[in-house]
Amino acid sequence: MQKNLIDFCVIIGANKDTNLEKVPCENPGEYGPYKQNVLAVLSANEAYFPEFYNKIDGHPYYKSNEVICPKLHHDDAKSSNYQNCSTEVLLFTKEVASNLVSFCFPSGGYGYKVSQPVHVSSLVLTNMGGSRSYAVYLTCTREYIAISDSFCEKILCTKSSDSENFPLHIPLCFCLVSSFPYFNTMKDCLSTLVPFLKKSEEELLSAVMNLAFCLLTTPVPPPGPLSVQLSLFGIEHIVHPADEAIFRVIDIDLRLPLFILSAEDVAKIIACLFTQQSIIFMAKEYSLLTMVIEAFLTYIDPFKWLFTYIPALPAAHADYIEAPGSFIIGLHSSLHSQVKHVRKDPNSGIVLVDLDKGVVDISSNINVPFMPDFVMQTLVMKLKNCSLVFEMSIVSSPSLFSFEEIKKQKNRFLDKINSDIKEIFFYMLVNLFGDVYNYINDQFFDKDAYLQCKPEDEKAFYKEVINSDSFSIFIGDRIKHRDCRDSFLLLSERLLSRKTSTHFRNRSSGTYTKSRSTNPTENQSISLNSVTEETVIYKMPTKHIESLSTGRYYKCHYKQLTSLLQGSNSLSNSLKASYLYLRGFAQIFSGLKIEGLRDLYSLNSLSPDLFPAENIFEVINNLNPFQIEQIKKEPFYKETAILRTISGNSMNARIDMQMFSSSLKLDKEEFLRRMATLKITDETAMWLFQVLLSERKENTDCIQPDQFSSFYKMWTYMMQESREVSGVKIDVADRILKVSAEINTSKGMGRIVLTTKQLLFVQLGAREYSVVAHLCDIKEISKYQQFSIIFTGIQALKIINSDQSIPPFNASLKEDRNVWFVLLSEMVAGNKASLALSDPMMVDEAANNVFIAQALLAIGFPLSIVAGVCRLSKRKKGEIGSLSDETRESLHIRLYPCEGQRATVMSITYVPANTEFSSTIWCGMGSGVIVVYETEKWEHLFELRSAKSRISCLRYVAINQVWAGSFDSVIYVINTVTTKLEQKLQSHCRSVSDIAVDDSPDTYSLIWSSGFDGQVFCWHSETRKCVTSFNLKGVRTLNQIIPTNDGRLWCITLDKIIVVDVLSDECPVLKYLSVPNRTEPVHFSCSMKFNDKEIWVGCKSEVRLVIWNTKTFTCEQVELESRIQICSMLFAGGSVWVGNKDGKIFVMCPITKKIILELNAHTDNVKSICETREGNVVTGSSSKDGQLCVWNTLLGYEVIDGKRIYRKMTVSNSISTFELVDNFFDL
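The line above is the sequence of DENN domain-containing protein 3; the predicted structure tokens follow.
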């Protein structure tokens, strides 16, 4: 929803419920290091206490059902409270446990004999998409009594009478996490907790919830003139916005680097940032590192640092500095010797900034081009002339005796000096790059012309910068928003227009001329503040207990903003837009969602940059059906395409979630049914049922509804893949399964990305990803301990490609190593099985297993249990199954038209290509659905749902027409171009059994249809009118009809063949045919027209083929080898393809009636078969198998001179021959 001042408040440490467990360490202290735990995660909607055994009272900030304590019941480690925890909080907690804990205790968590001073520090975290979160944490110590215990290192309690036990002061950390860099504001807010730190645990926790709830509900003002003021424990705090959308929020002291480093060194570091050098900052105080580095990033704003950025790196992760590539890392000074050792590597090229000594040391093996002399001199001069010390500014002012007055005076000074410093660096940026607008043509920036216009002594710097990723982003924003006249453009225009004496550019010649002025600050009096508007402060309403519990707080907030907007005639557009932005969200939170959306929409005309599209998406996703209908009537909805797109997708998501929400327990049958709808195999579903069942210690055979809901919620979240990793768009066709944290690899610092078919690497700061390996090409995945200059025994993976020319890929995954090993091994096994069986579903099955594993890990299951779902990687070689050489060579691809719930492929028809569309096959399913695939890449195109029952037959009958007969007695006429249903033919009384096209030269596009009851209709293909019809008497199941060129219709029933003269008006029966010399009737299963003279009929219960002569009505009986029970037949590629009852496909020579090939890919009755003009045969099977197999009509091969030579069946009048085809593969 709306971005508030903080996203989470986290408590980290140890208490009497967690006890103390020692962490392995090379140099342990007397009391530690101990394991630190996430004790609480507070969000706007819930309070999660994963380590508390006692009930927590969240009133008035949280309702009872919003306070979640999973360990509240000792006998049930995963109680129902746990299941109610939101996905967002669970995943954040998991990330916190592995990252934030080590960052808040960078040197490890120790106990102390005496109380330690309260300490405040800050840090920056980067998420998977490359977005940064900013955190400020306050660390104090609380006194406990440490009691030795045989099961763990120490048990903590508050009282003890045993004299041998001793008091121990245990660190406790309170951390605020925000999407915005409000470092000083968060520090001030955390400091209000200091009076509560020595109070009881209950009082302290209540104060923390008060603070968290206040900050979680305080909105961040949008860029513009409006600031927000809040009151916390009687102290007022002001939240300032960013000046413009292109700039960062400034809430730090920009003087800090200038206190520590010389102006010349500051200019050197700026040059290093522009040229993307690897920079290490070192200091004795972690708290100093983040502030100094953030100040430098503010200096170069709107340029962005895109590479590895960890301003306060814990000692446990110091090996990151050994990774190749650019980075900014802050380290404790105690690691100075290790850094020195790394810098000795001639390939390292690290710039070291020692904040303790105020020294910048640039490695001798790198050449950093510095800024142009004029710009650098101007910057240095201005910085030296800047008055940085507050006390110097009040020397001539009268003394103040009120603390509040002194604080206000100091804050005014800091605001002014921050503004002055930002202005100095902003002028530097405009002096350096203000002329880029002259080289932007349409959507292109002319790098060569821009570089050519620079003087020779400046070209090295500009060449390095314009090829950097930061500059590419910067210039891309300028191109994308060319019509946006921000302060950078305005100041650029002003400066360039006034550069007549110091540094001007001849636009016609594209050259620079430098003046002889010796004063770099001359004629530079333009004020940046002249383009900004005076700040207005909006005071948030006071949060009373009553307003928190009843929800009146947001209503007061809304009314207060409404009163301010009533005088909107006197307000500027930017201030009015800020008020509307805040009021829109206030109304949404108070339940007036339509009114809130109306306010947010109005931002389009007042300030388009503030239009919150992502927030609106979330709001509409949570509207109920009545509200969706209501919003569609709003004028702004009809005018805004984005809202219509969002609302169109929102209902489906809610219906899907409701389907899996239930208050009833799930038995095995119901659980398996739900898993089938998620396309999870029965084998995996059974395993999951047992795992969820064993989670509870109750003696039951049903899954609790909250258990299933928790799993499904997390599984759904895992399925919602992101296509952006560290700012890089992952545009592969594969599905993204897992993304690692930022890790050190043999390719540099970055993230590895596991997709369904590849392992990718995204280097931090890179503009595109690289392929580590295709999963089917991975030869070996091994776990090993990596040794580095700084650390030994880092948990890592080595991935070896089957291509020996590709070097192994190493990834230092640390504590995530074993998880990655399990998931990656599963996907490799799935890909190799898919290749061996020509079955893409094996990849899908492996991917589903990976998603299930991640969902179970996220809700607290250990890896030892979760690994059981990765079944493919655990199977021994040969257990998955294999195909015969003939099948593997002939099988092109398997398709699954009804994934999850398999259905019989009743009929298949081929639709040839036309000028607009490529050729397709249409599959009529037993579920009533028609599934369509294109025949080039065999990709699924769409599904049609018109029939009320099973599709019994499909036929491409004329140009752009497919007719589908159904068990609901209707024939559906579908246009293959528009895919729309054009007509329903409803003359049949019972189920339609077959549709046939009369291709006789004397007919005029006649189409025959039959019913199982013996009804036969003849239709005109253009008018779709019935031409004639008749009813066969005494028929037992009319299955197929075959029109012949002599005006006859062969009707194949269950036990006889009826030949009808359709040229006569009455359509008389000419012959009743049955197999001669048989005491019992022979039942027929299928038939096909081989040529004008022969009709082949398969017998249902016998291994027999009957070939009828269409002229003489005599038959030949052929005993089939291999015990074939024919279910379907097709003449294709010069051979007869026969589908068997047990799923086998036999390719038969039509002359000798001998089997040429036996193919085995189906596991159930081969129900349907068709041929494509591209040279493929497509077979479909019954519901136990429910798949399509696409076969090549190149059949078999011979080995000649060590090469496979494929052969294709051709038929002459008397003999069958093989035509040699060019070889495809070498042996």
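Note on the example: The mean pLDDT is 81. The radius of gyration is 38 Å.
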